[in-house]
Amino acid sequence: MCRVHQLHGGSLSLAYDNILATCAAKKVKRGGGNILHVASQEDNLFLLDTVLDILNQATDRGDIVRQTIEANMHIGLPHSGKTPLLVAAQGGHPDAVQRLVTSKADLDAKDQQGSSVLHLAAEHGQARVIEVLLQMDIVGGGAGLANLLMLTDEEDMSCLHVAAECGKVKVAEMVME
User: Fold this and answer.
1) Domains along the chain?
2) Three-class SS of residue 8?
3) CB–CB of 129/121 below 8 Å?
4) In 3D, which of 58, 53, 39 has the Cα closest to residue 97?
């Protein structure tokens, strides 16, 4: 049982409601994103771990808290279409990326420009994010590492093309290995 879950008498709904209320009170729920977007953007691993722990504790598939968190993992920001995983990758937060992938974030997700998790990491020179993704045993979600490397954006560019075009030599070398 997670710490937040224990503090709220074992009630997942109460724990999740408390987290949402805290975020709203601090006005961190901005730009149409959800709690996972906030945690991913700010590299707030405590908040991210807490929400993902609540997800893992919610064993009942019909539990509204579980359904809400699972849905939030796959929702894109209104202005960009970026999911929490894409936000973490673009921001250069490898630990957040690893936690989200481990929790079944959608590796096939693309933003409104068709950029995948690897495209965004390559474009922004996030070598640590690329390294984490390459080291993880990515087999779920239909993506797989080979498929991720071959995904193209709206301009028909792979993450290698993006890295080269943006002058991110280290990232391009990592992807080619």
Assistant:
1) 1-75 (no CATH), 81-177 (1.25.40.20)
2) coil
3) yes
4) 39
- CA angle 112/53/109 to nearest 5° reads 15
Question: Which tens digits make up the pLDDT trace of 6-51?
Answer: 444 555 566 566 666 555 544 444 556 777 888 888 888 888 888 8
State which H helix or E strand residue 175 sits in.
helix 169-176
Amino acid at 53: D
SS (H, E, C) 109-171: CCCCCCCCHHHHHHHCCCHHHHHHHHHCCCCCCCCHHHHHHHCCCCCCCCHHHHHHHCCCHHH
DSSP code for 77: P
pTM: 0.78
pLDDT per residue as tens digits for the range 97-142? 999 998 888 888 899 999 999 999 999 999 999 988 888 755 444 4
Interatomic CA distance for residues 170 and 147, integer angstroms: 21
Largest Cα separation within the chain, whole Å, is: 53
